[in-house]
Amino acid sequence: MAEPKRSIVEIRNLSKAYHRESLAVPVLHDITFDIAEGEFLALMGPSGSGKTTLLNLLAGIDKADSGTILVGGVDITALSETELAHWRANNVGFIFQFYNLIPVLRAVENVELPLHLTALSRRERREHAEMALRMVSLEHRMDHYPKEMSGGEQQRVAIARAIVTDPTILVADEPTGDLDRVSAEEILTMMERLNAEMGKTIVMVTHDPRAAKRAKVVRLLDKGYLNDAPAQNPL
Amino acid sequence: MLQLKILFRNAFHNKLRSGLTILGITVAVLAFGLLRTVIGAWYSGVEAASASRLVTRNAISIIFPLPIAYAEKIRQIEGVKLVSWGNWFGGIYIDEKNFFPNFCVEPRTYMAVYPEFVLSPPEKKAFLADRKGFVAGRKLAARYHWKIGDTVTLRGTIFPGNWDFVLRGVYRGRDETIDETQFLFHWDYLNETMKRVSPRRADQVGFYMIAVSRPDLAPDVALSVDRTFKNSLAETLTETEKAFNQGFIAMSGAIVTAIQMVSFVVILIIMAVVANTMAMTTRERIGDYAIMKTLGFGGGSIAVMIFGESLVIALTGCFAGMILTFPAARAFSQTLSTYFPIFIVSAQTLWLDLLAALLIAFFAAIIPARRAIRVGIAEGLRRLG
């Protein structure tokens, strides 16, 4: 019998509401679940269900109203803004729907950006960035600016930037939402490989069943409630 | 290093907007530099004044004369090294628009009291030997194309009649701060003519110039001079050359204050323009800053990039403005040399330009930087989407 994988993310009684003037709009209600190390999890649900908010909370870019989030044993809800920034730099790789590359930097410079927060030398930073770009098969696009690349290529650069620091988890918010079908398939295959070959824990928010199909586990969110039990991907 | 690259590239990313902002700063720095230079030109006489020279005039007003007999009494006061004297002549050359300062002076002592007026020995000798001779500053002689030996006629206003003079020398200033537009001739020429045509006005001088042996003696000498002529028919007022010159400037103090205020208003206006540019550019990049924060960059790094971008824009405009100030000042000086014989862009003006640019950069970036730091990452990323 296979030994159960340890949880890399432990979320307990997580709640979050957005405040508009005096009105509080609840987004997440008492969410509790774990993400196992090496997991490829898809968070699905209709618009406004709280998927992106949950992703932002477990990636440490938003603050919960109550509850705890332990990532690799660290309670990130107890960290200050500065500690959280440091933690993000070392533990989380981000992939966004609109790639979110810095437009004035070349591909290799975009990938190198998070490495400026490490102790690596200039030469080491460049080597790491080039290696990450080779992993996403973009070594021929290193010196191109984002506007000179296709959407699929930009997303591959974003993936290279996400993995270059070797983070604990990768979070992806609708990573194929702005791509054509062929490019989307390429990106999903790349993420599958990162999970299978490099053991990266991936949490992906999507409303696209084709994208969710590639994940090992799918969790459904509806109106801020997690309404299913952890299960193998039914898709 | 990469942050430096980002802020430089950001600064020139929107070429039209950055170009127009830089042009605005260039024009503002140019205007500021020229206005400061005008103020400097106004004070050039004060700056060029020597601490070891005193000016004695009639205590009632400078328009009232003093007897020439005072010269000997002043010479005997302890601490006095040299005494010279002169009158404002107020002559007109051809037309009233051809204004330049013209004085009759006692030439031997005057040249000794004013060593900064440099005259070649042969020219000095020729000037001293010719009672109708005069010397002109280099700029004045150049302006009217006078050559040694030329006869120049001034129409007297205070001392009526046409007065003929022969150019015997062209002096140069010891340095660039010395006025090279003066016209100096023999006091004896005026005095002897007055003795003939208006004896009541003879043997009188408008002012005495006193060189003291040591600058620290100046206050005591000034007191002694005034005490000597206390209760006489023409009481004196003696002050340092600097105070005397400042007295003239005080008469136009309101104009100088107005120019100073305008120069600072120019800086305030451009500060608002740059602040607007920085607000726009930061609003456009709020998503980029959110990405950087997501990657782990702190508020300090974001602030450095915004302040740095503001600094790059402000300094680019500032340096362009500083460079353009020199040809503009030269053109200004040539056009208005009658009123501003010394029109030099000083090092202090350039430092003020730089300080103004730094202040513009700093204040223009405060609000945009604060806003960029305070906006939440999720909010910033939403703006990108």
Characterization of this structure:
- The complex is a heterodimer of chains A (235) and B (385).
- Chain A has 235 residues and is of the alpha/beta class.
- Helix content of chain A is 31%, strand content 27%.
- Chain A is built from 7 helices and 10 strands.
- A 6-stranded mixed β-sheet of chain A has the order 6-7-8-3-9-10. In chain A, strands 2-1-4-5 form a 4-stranded antiparallel β-sheet, covered by helices on one side.
- In chain A, helix 4 packs across helix 5 and helix 5 packs parallel to helix 6.
- The longest helix of chain A is centred in the last third of the chain and has 18 residues.
- The radius of gyration of chain A is 18 Å and the shape is globular.
- Chain A starts with 6 loop residues before the first strand and ends in a 9-residue tail after the last strand.
- The model of chain A has no long low-confidence stretch (mean pLDDT 90).
- Chain B has 385 residues and is α+β, with helices and mostly antiparallel strands.
- Chain B has 2 domains: 175 residues, no CATH class; 175 residues, no CATH class.
- Chain B has 15 helices and 12 strands.
- In chain B, the strands form 2 sheets. In chain B, strands 1, 3, 4, 5, 6, 7, 8, 9, 11 and 12 form a 10-stranded mixed β-sheet that branches. In chain B, strands 2-10 form a two-stranded antiparallel sheet.
- The longest helix of chain B is centred in the last third of the chain and has 37 residues.
- The two termini of chain B are 28 Å apart.
- Classes of the chains: A alpha/beta (235), B alpha+beta (385).
- At the A-B interface, helix 2 of A face helix 1, helix 12 and helix 15 of B.
